[in-house]
Here is the input.
Amino acid sequence: MIDTSSAFTNRDMNGKYDLRVHLEQAAPIPLKVSFDCHRGELVALVGPSGSGKSTVLRCIAGLNTPRDGQVVCNGVEWLNTDRGLNEPPQKRAVGIVFQSYALFPHLSALENVTVAMQHISADQRKSRALQLLRTVNLEGLEQRRSHQLSGGQQQRIALARALAREPSALLLDEPFSSVDQTTRRKLQRELAGLRGRMAHPIILVTHDVEEACLLADRVCILHRGQSLDIGSPAKILNSPRHKLAARLVGQMNVFEGRIIEHQAQRNVTLLRWLDYELETRHCPRFAAGSTVDWVIPPQNILLHQRVRPSRGERENPVHGTIDELVVLGEVASVTLLIDNRSDTTLTFNLPMHVVQRNRLEAQDQISVSLRAEGIHLMPRNEEDGE
Amino acid sequence: MDWQAFSLSLKLAAWTTVILIPIAIITARLIAWRRFAAKGFIEALVALPLVLPPTVLGYYLLTVFSRHSPLGGAYHSLFNQPLAFSFEGLLLASVIFNIPFAIQPMQRAFEAMPGELREAAWCSGLSHWQTFARIELPLAWTGVLTAVLLTFAHTLGEFGVVLMVGGNIPGETKTIAIAIYDRVQAFDDARAATMSALLLLFSFVAIGVVYFVNDRYKQRFH
Here is the structure.
């Protein structure tokens, strides 16, 4: 198991981070989660359903209490199980958008926002609430009740209500999951636009890796209540920490290989895979002769054009038979059987014009190059394998 | 028309409602939202007066009210009068046999409220009391209204338990339902008919309001 608690030192407790979370428990839901979120940063918690991401959010808001844990926001401790400190939700300055939005059905849109303004005097609430509703593009709908509004409009009220408390942290629990695709794209754009004006840390819970990478500055991968990996979207997607983290972000091309040798002067490491000798970026932290896992994201697999061969073909050429060619609109998803081994396949996408120009069909023999820059080596960790 | 019996019935119904509804709100919320070991047992206890013959309930109440029982004895030494066959005894009996009518509608109303609404209220900075007053009660108000109307109407109409623990003392325990029985026994059909018609009308209006309000509420939010 990966120990993520080491990133959580005392020095950091009063340092530059604004929201710091460390949770641990064995039951009822196992949790071992550590992460932090800076002012104005958006961290996405991503994982399959049941990975505990909503529980983590609820622990930050004070709706759940973990067995062991610490939550610190803006230097104020909200939870410290060592000291027996556990502030109720009312005392934690959080704004939360629930997956179901949880709007108060008997109140108007405006009242839903003003009710969350207990901290300011009653005569200031209305003007401030109107301003917030303008911010989320809901002008003119102030008097509507939630059942008279569309899903997207309800989500905007929920966001305005979450901001009404002037929170120190904004928590979003699958906020885009119950609206249609078009509205989702629109709301995602709006959130990205609002981000510039928000000074607090934002935590977004989602099961959608694509959405997380679209919106987040950093992504934290959760699996069975454990934070497995945290980093920028590019890091999470292209340089996952281990095989399981790679699988969880949807990487299909994860294999096992053996380090042959390191060639420091050429800045390469040679990797044995099947009968191939692959060149990768110089990576001396793995001993020669050791077995590693490696991943290649699909955009780093390049087709050798049948009509116009090019120089790049000398880079890690691999040969195989097209097992499947599935057309998905403008792209085709290609599954390539390597050396006709039924257990080893490379999956990548090709634009349809490339498929047509090369007259590719299932059962065709083709060659591809694996870009050395795109191959990422990972330590083998039997415990994380499934 | 026995106006004395009618006003006594109204007084009994009003006091029963005033005493029972706050207790029932607390109990209904507890049963609706908390999980605890004895939950099924408590729910069965709440529903018991629905199926128990009024004479059985009346018999046990009389036993508890007796001067030889702790409750009856304590009441007697405090107020120097028996609890049985008094208005106070009747009120206590009335509160007990109305428990299911007060608790069950409110329990359903609280159960129908998504738990996330309360959590959203807490996360909006509302205290537990503010959450109750501004979110829970307004959303459960049809349940509260139903409980009030059912308790009130049911108290006006209850006969068996009243006869067992109250007897037939004018101005003290002779309610309108007892008065009707009394008039029928005396072959005074005219007054029995007037009072019966009054109770029929009142009960129908109360039940009618319950269904009308619940129906309107459903249309509005669903």
